Amino acid sequence: MKDYQLGEFEEIVMLTIGILNNSAYSVLIKDEIEERLDRTVSMGALHTALRRLEDKGYLRSFAGEATTERAGRPRRYFEITALGKRAVQNTKATRDALWHAIPKTIFQTSIKGSI
To answer: Which range of residues forms the domain containing residue 72?
Structure first.
């Protein structure tokens, strides 16, 4: 279903928000992705993806408590919406179907004659 398609980075962001559950805010999302995937993430790319996912209705954001460490500004937390859950499930089902369609011999390596 084209309506529920996620790009690779969008999928990573959505899954990371799921992992972080009720404590998903941008810096923590960035740190979690970088730690789990050994991948550098720019804040600009992350904020663009978060905004795009919110515009699609896949995420909802809300302000947390204001903190002195942030000069009184609250953190913006993210949670996955029901529509977002369907998008993630659709993405997983699509990937699973593709993986199951690949003949098992494709990824087997042969010692004989291989370079």
So the answer is: 2-103
